[in-house]
Amino acid sequence: MTERINCVECNFVLYWGETIKDRMGIRYSEDTFLARYEHKCPNCGGKVTTDSVKITFED
Ligand SMILES: [Zn+2]
């Protein structure tokens, strides 16, 4: 299962790969990951939080 996180403003791919929880552990959340970007899209500077990004799961 793969997970993709896109910025809704510019569609920049913030994350693509194995499901974050499988890869980083159950305590690691999308929010923890987005904190690495200081909750800002590196492409457009838009706000990236769990509620504002587009998260897609694929088999
Ligand atoms: Zn963006």
List the uncertain runs: none
Bound molecules: zinc ion
Assign a percent range to the helix content: 10-25%
Number of domains: 1
Radius of gyration: 11 Å
Distance between the termini: 5 Å
Helices and strands, in order, run as EEHHE
Question: Percent of residues in beta strands?
Answer: 25-35%
Q: Please state the overall shape, judged from the principal axes of the Cα atoms.
A: globular
Mean pLDDT: 96
Tally of contiguous helical segments: 2
Placed side by side, the strands forming the largest sheet appear as: 2-1-3
Query: By helix and strand content, what is the structural category?
Result: alpha+beta
Query: What's the main sheet like?
Result: 3 strands, antiparallel
In total, the number of strands is: 3
Tell me the layout of helices and strands.
Blueprint: E1 2-6, E2 13-18, H1 20-24, H2 30-35, E3 54-58
Antiparallel strand pairs: 1-2, 1-3
Question: In brief, what are we looking at here?
Answer:
With 59 residues, the protein is an alpha+beta fold. It is globular.
Q: What would your notes on this structure say?
A:
With 59 residues, this protein is an alpha+beta fold. The protein has one domain (2-58). Helix content is 19%, strand content 27%. The chain contains two helices and three strands; from the N terminus they run ββααβ. The chain has a three-stranded antiparallel β-sheet. The chain starts with a strand and ends with a strand. Bound molecules: zinc ion (ZN). The site of zinc ion (ZN) has 8 residues, from loops.
